[in-house]
Predict the 3D structure of the following.
Amino acid sequence: MDFKIAVLAGDGIGPEIIDQAKKVIEAAGKKFNHTFNFTHALVGAIAIDKTGNPLPEETLNLCKASDAVLFGAIGDPKYDNDPSAKVRPEQGLLAMRKELGLYANVRPVSTFASLIDKSPLKKEIVQGVDIMMIRELTGGIYFGKPQGRSEDGNTAYDSCVYSKYEVERVVRLACEYAMKRSKRLTVVDKANVLATSRLWRETAVAIAKDFPEITMDFMFVDNAAMQLIQWPAKFDVIVTENMFGDILSDEASVLTGSLGLLPSASVGLLTSVFEPIHGSYPQAAGKNIANPLGTILSVAMMFDLAFNLKKEAEVIRTAVEKSIEADFVTEDLNKANPKSTSQVGDWIADYVLKS
Ligand code: IPM
Ligand code: MG
């Protein structure tokens, strides 16, 4: 089959890790007889430098016309140190989420047996962790209006706004994931304080009627933050609103000690975006040392979700596991004998081709 992929490499290590993902996609294409057409476009700080806009119109149109978007990372220290900058790379990301209707961010977090010692938590606690974190991505306090400052500048306000429809679609997606897993779903909110959280609860309870096999439980976000550290293995599918999800998904991502390995999918109405969860890691840019596995595993999610190429996705996941077992990994996973970003990419592409 033929697939069109928009490639948005972005900033920092983005271009290097994306190159490895492309190698793996090409290898899968050769092996399984598919054609993948890549078109590159600008996003983030590099797009600001070249066009003044972190998400140029051309990039957005390309995404809309593609079967999937492969995304690297955005962010540049020159903006981090200047919160007053008028145009910021993150605006490109938020605009992309809104314009493409990327309503759910899906982040699987699981342990790799051979990497368990990298976790900041005790082995007994982290063993068996297998969480599917689903974060609402286009609503809540990130996009709520009004937002701004009073005339005298002494007061500022953000608004957390959710419609029932926005809650329904993401909770429904979470239920579908739960059905394919252990049929347990934890809805995280702050219903003891927030009106939006009470709408979330009410809506989730109504959706649950369509999924009688699912055991749904509710947890306040502060308690969830604590339990994620204390008993991470007891969670399965978690669904929550935008800001809580931003915080909890970062927390979840370090549980297994393998931040560089974690993929994500942002499920959209028009097209979906696949990206590693780590950032642009500017200190490593251009050094060929960044871990490409999170991006390569994001390709596996793309094959699964956007192209319905299940067998191909499985081969890519196996190739990644094998590279870890063979200790053919970058310096974050093996300081004594590290392989470069491109060596790891070549190894995995080769494994896919020969599998
Ligand atoms: C993320 C990031 C973004 C967010 C930032 C860069 C705007 O932290 O994707 O989790 O807060 O959503
Ligand atoms: Mg975040």
User: Anything to note?
Assistant: Residues 103 and 137 are 5 Å apart (CA to CA).
